[in-house]
Write a structure and sequence with these properties.
Length: 302
C-alpha cells in the first residue's frame, strides 16, 4: 500500500550541478541536497527537465542520484526520473534507482517517434519491471515530449500495481481532475498554477522554479491546505511575477535560477549544458532583480 503522505507537499525538481569544466559536480549535488533539507521541502525530483537529463549520460545520471541519496537519508522523499530514449537504458537506470532505495521512479513517454499507446505502455511497464518494488509515476509533459497522456492509457497503466500517479505538467488543470478521478495521485507540474492544481485535487507539486524560492511555495501549499486561498493567491501571483522576470533573460531559465540560488546564499551549481543557452552579461541584472523579488516576498509572507 502506497504511503501517500510522503508525496504530499512541495518537491523541487533538482538542478543539474556542474563544475567550471561542465562536468557533474558531486560536491555541489550534495550541497544542493542539504540546502533542500534545510529549507524543509517534502522531497526532490531528480533527473528530470530541471536536471537536464536528456543532455547527460547514464553514468552521469547515476552519479547525481547516488550523491543525492547519500545526503537525503530519509530526510527527503526522492523521486528519480529514469527515462532514456530507449528501453534498455531506462531499465538500467530504474534498477539502479531501486538499488539506492528511492521512493519512486518516474518517466516521460518515448520522444521523437510517435508511438501508439500500447507501445508507450510497454515502454513504461518494461522499466517498472526493472524496479519491481518501487512506485512508478508517469510524467505527462506533452508540450515537450510531443505525446499527451490519455484516460485510456492511464487506465491501462493503472493495471500495474506499482503505478501510483502522474506528474502532470500539461497546462489544463482539468487534466488533474481527470487523472485523479481514475484513482491516480497527481502532482501539479506548472509552477504558475500550483494553487489551481491543488484546488483541483493535486496531492503535491513538483516544479522547476521551486528550488529558487522554496519558502514561498511551501507557504503557498500550507495556506491552501489551511483554507486561506486569498493569501495563497497573493503568493502565487508573486511567484508568477518572479518566473516572468526569470524568463525575460537571454540565457536558459535554469542558468538564471542557478545564479539566483548563488546570490541568495545557496550552493554554486554552475551553469547549464549546451545546447542550453548560458547567461549573457545583461542577464546578471535580471538574476539580481529576481533574487531581490524573492527576498522581499519571503520577508513579507514567510
Amino acid at each position: 500500500m502506497t504511503d501517500i503522505k510522503k508525496y504530499e507537499g512541495i518537491i523541487p525538481a533538482f538542478y543539474a550541478c556542474y563544475d567550471a569544466e561542465g562536468r557533474i559536480n558531486p560536491q555541489a549535488v550534495r550541497e544542493l541536497t542539504r540546502y533542500f533539507i534545510d529549507k524543509g521541502v517534502k522531497g526532490v525530483y531528480v533527473g528530470g527537465s530541471s536536471g537536464e537529463c536528456i543532455y547527460q549520460s547514464k553514468e552521469e545520471r547515476k552519479l547525481v542520484l547516488e550523491n543525492v541519496m547519500a545526503e537525503a537519508k530519509g530526510k527527503l522523499t526522492v523521486i528519480a526520473h529514469i527515462a532514456c530514449n530507449n528501453t534498455a537504458d531506462s531499465q538500467e537506470l530504474a534498477a539502479h534507482a531501486e538499488s539506492l532505495s528511492v521512493d519512486a521512479i518516474a518517466a516521460i513517454p518515448p520522444i521523437y517517434f510517435k508511438l501508439p499507446p500500447y507501445a508507450i505502455a510497454k515502454y513504461w511497464n518494461d522499466m517498472s519491471a526493472a524496479a519491481p518494488n518501487t512506485d512508478f509515476i508517469i510524467y505527462n509533459i506533452p508540450q515537450l515530449a510531443g505525446v499527451a497522456l490519455s484516460v485510456p492509457l492511464l487506465k491501462e497503466m493503472l493495471k500495474n500495481p506499482r503505478v501510483i500517479g502522474v506528474k502532470n505538467s500539461s497546462m489544463p488543470v482539468q487534466d488533474i481532475q481527470m487523472w485523479r478521478d481514475e484513482g491516480a495521485i497527481v502532482f501539479n507540474g506548472p509552477d504558475e498554477q500550483l494553487i489551481s492544481g491543488m484546488v483541483m485535487g493535486a496531492t503535491g507539486g513538483i516544479g522547476g522554479t521551486y528550488g529558487a524560492m522554496p519558502e514561498l511555495y511551501t507557504k503557498l501549499f500550507d495556506l491552501v491546505k489551511s483554507g486561506d486561498l486569498a493569501t495563497a493567491l497573493e503568493i502565487q501571483n508573486e511567484c508568477c511575477r518572479i518566473i516572468y522576470k526569470m524568463c525575460s533573460a537571454h540565457g536558459n531559465m535554469y542558468a538564471v535560477i542557478k545564479e539566483i540560488l548563488r546570490i541568495n546564499g545557496g550552493p554554486d551549481c554552475g551553469s547549464v549544458r549546451a545546447p542550453l543557452a548560458e547567461m549573457i552579461e545583461s542577464d546578471y541584472l535580471i538574476a539580481q532583480e529576481a533574487a531581490q523579488m524573492i527576498r522581499t516576498a519571503v520577508a513579507k509572507y514567510c
